[in-house]
Each structure stands twice: as structure tokens, then as C-alpha cells.
Amino acid sequence: MGKAWAEKFEIGREIFARADEVLGFGLSKVCFEGPESEVTRTDVAQAAIYTTSVACCEALKQQGVIDPAHLAATAGLSLGEYTALYMAGAFSFEDGLMLVRQRGTFMQEAATATPSSMVALIGADESQANQLCDDAKGDGVLVPANFNCPGQVVVSGSKDACERALTVASKMGLKATALTVAGAFHSPLMRPAADRMAAALDKANWNLPTVPVMSNVTGQPHDNDIASIKKMLVAQITQSVRWTQDVQWLIANIPAPGARFVEPAPGKVLSGLMRRIDKAVKVENFAEPA
Hints:
Layout lengths: L2 H6 L1 H14 L3 H7 L2 H4 L2 H22 L16 H8 L5 H21 L2 E9 L1 H11 L5 E8 L1 E8 H13 L3 E4 L12 H13 L22 H11 L6 H11 L7 E4 L4 H9 L5 E4 L4
Parallel strand pairs: 5-6
Antiparallel strand pairs: 1-3, 1-4, 2-3
Helix pairs in contact: 2-5, 2-7, 5-6, 5-7, 7-10, 8-9, 10-11
């Protein structure tokens, strides 16, 4: 993860070196060499993804692919909201890195405390997802966690409820797949992590974003108020990610001639979701350098 950006661009190497220094361990070595069991742990993965995205974005700035002077808005799915805030100047790379490192640690510990999981539903809308959660939760917890694109919803909750969700989904004519995740992210089971994250966010140095940044919780831009942004980032840990609404707002409100959607490393997930949200909108993907 991120190795190609570090090999090709000095700024990429610099970002990873700064991450190693801030975190006090070789994040770059884990990203570039693995093992996969290490880099996919939530407490490591969140720092790894954020660092890779920033390394890519900074290289794209130097290449002229991203022009900060003409940045119209930023958005990120779940953890990506922190990269979006960084790109909008809300905090430094180092402050953002410490925040995502703590976020990952808090969420990992909350996941370990309670057996839990997530299930992807294909073909479901919001009302069907809510109905499935009501029918399958029993005495456990089960809530919609991600509205990724039309027909793709992820539910999250206690392990037994997720197991029941697979059966209920089949009866509803929905395709359901159990996800290999550390825990029930974006659900009430993450409340201990959210409570601890509130204190971490208060310790960071903040600036008002220079452009609109989309909130996962509301599906609208964050209010131009630091206290409100921090409140929404806390809520994001336990509430649904409304990615479809975020993207639809951007398409409707930033239709200027020449407007471009750019997805940085490390993956192509958002490009794929866009094809389901609005096929007419093209996304330039930079999972790997050109």
C-alpha cells in the first residue's frame, strides 16, 4: 500500500517518513511489505490508508493534477472524511495522522470487547435495510451502517444478529454477504470508541476548512464551525455513513464546467460506487501513479 507513490515521488517518501517518526514505528515497512494480517488490523489500517492517501494527494498537487486554488469541495467515506478534512486545510498531516491512529485504536478495542460483525446487502434500499434490522436484531444490536450506493447497504451489529440477518435477507429476496471485519463499525457498539474520540479531537489543532467538506452523518457539507465538525466526527463512529447522499449533493451543487472528481490511492472503491450512483459522472482514479 502506497509503495509506488513513495518510490516515484520524493514527497511520497517524505510523507511516509514523517508518519514513521510521528507514530514511533515503521508504518512504511508495514505498508510496503506487510504482512497482510498486520496492515489490515483496524488500528494500523486507518493510519496506513490516511498516510497513503495524503502521499498520493501531495504528489498529485506537485504534478498539477490537483490545484489547491481550484479545489471545489472534498469528501471521504468513513475514515476518508479525515483525508477530506486534511485536503481542506482543517488540520496538519501530523494532527490528522494522530487522530486516525487513535480512532483506529479505539475502534479496535471496542470491537474486541463485543463479538460483532457487518453484513453487505445487495439490492436493498433504506426501508428494506431498516426492516431487515428490525426483524433480525432480536435481543442484539443491528443497524444500517453504510449507504454506499443505490442497492448496496451494509448493516452492522452483534454477531448473532448479523448471523440472523443472512437468513432474513434470503427470505426478503436480498443477497447478503458476511464481511470479514474486526467489528460492528458505525453502530452503537462503537460508543466507547466515540466517547474517547471526542477527547482526542479536542486536543488537535484545528482550522476552518477552506472549501466545503462533506459529512458522512448528514449527507450534507459540514457547518463552517469547528465544534460542529468535531461533533459530527464523533457521531460518525456510531451512525450510518450516507455516502450516496454526499455524492449526490456534490453532483447537484458543484456542476461547474470542467468540474472533475478525483479519487486518490489506495483503492478504486469510490470509482466503482460512482458508477452505481450516477453513471454519467466520471472519476479519475489514482490508485497507482501514472
